[in-house]
Amino acid sequence: MTTGENTTEARLQAFLAKAKDGISGQDAAIDALAAELSRRLETRSDHRPLAVLLLAGPDRSGTKADLVEVLADALDVPIHQYDLSPPWGEEDALIFGLNPGVPAWLSLQQSLTDHPRAIVALKAVEQAHPTVLSRLQAAWTSGRLVEPSGTEVATTGAIFILTTELGQGAVGQLARQETDPDRLHVAAVKLLADAGFPIPVLRSIDAVIGLRSHTPGELTREYRRQIAEQVRAHGLVLADGGIDARIVTDLMAPAIGPYVEGEWAVRDRLDADLVRAKAEGAETVRLVLGDDGILVVPVDRSVQKEPQSSPGSAGQEGSGDE
User: Fold this and answer.
1) Which whole number is the average pLDDT over 253-261?
2) Is 50 exceeded by the pLDDT of residue 311?
3) How far is CA 183 from CA 130, 179, 199, 213, 250, in A?
4) 3-class secondary structure per residue, 105-135
5) Listed residue (184, 138, 161, 154) closest to 53, CA to CA
6) Taking the model in full, what pTM does it have?
7) Strand partners, 162
C-alpha cells in the first residue's frame, strides 16, 4: 500500500483484473471489495485500521482465501493469517501470543510490529473466544493493540479481513438478488446476526462482502474450466469432450466416491498423473473417473525412438533364453 493515490488506485485496478480473471462468478463481490477499500483509503483515520471487512457467503473452492491472496499480491503487502476456530481461538489464543508453548514471533503484535502495512486474515472469527473478540474490537476502535506488558502496537496500517462460515446459503442467495453493496451489507448483517454471529463484532465491521451462490450450471462450467486449466498448465491439450461428466458431478456432490477425501487431494494426484503422461510422450489427453480418482488417458503420443541395441546385446538376450 502506497501513499500516492494514483498508485493505490492502479493497484486496486490490478486487483480487479486479476481477481475477475481467476475467480469465477464473483464479479459483484470483487467490485464491492475494491470500492470499499478505495473509499477507506481515501478517508483513512488515524484511530482505526484501514478497513475491517467480513467475507460471507459460500466458499466451495477456497474463494475467500483466493480473494485475500490476490488482494495482498496487488497491494504488495504480506498476509498475517490466523485461524480462530477452536482450539486456536481459545482464551490463550495463538493470535496474541498468550500460550507459553507458542513462539512469540507468531503473534499478531509481533507481525504488525515487523510489517505494519499488511492484511490480517482472520478465519472463522465467529468461533473465537469472547476475550479474543473483545481484544480485537478494542484494536479496531482505538487503532492500537495493547500487549499485557502495556506496549502498544498500531493497527492503523492494516486491513483486517474476516471470514465466516455462518449463513452461507442465505448470504449466497442474497448476493444473487441484491446488486447494491450498501443494501446487501444491511441485509447480510441481519442474516448473520440471526445465524448467531456475535453482534458486537458486526457493529465493528466496515462492510460485509457477500459472495453469491452458484447455480448447478455455473458450478459445472467453473469446474470444467478449472480442470481444463490444470491440464493446460502441464503443457497438455485436452481432447474435445475430454472430461468425463462423472468427474464434475462427483465434484459437486462428493459424499461418496473418490472425492470423499477432499477435492484437492484428488486434484493433487491428478497433477502427478499429468506430469507422468507428459513425460511418457502424451500430447492430447482425456480424463475419465476411476475408482480411486481421475485417470489420464492419452489420446495420442509423440513417436519416441527406441534405443538401439548393441550388437552383443541380442546375443546375450538369446543366450539368456536358452
Assistant:
1) 47
2) no
3) 29, 8, 18, 18, 36
4) HHCHHHHHHHCCCEEEEEECHHHCCHHHHHH
5) 161
6) 0.77
7) 54, 122
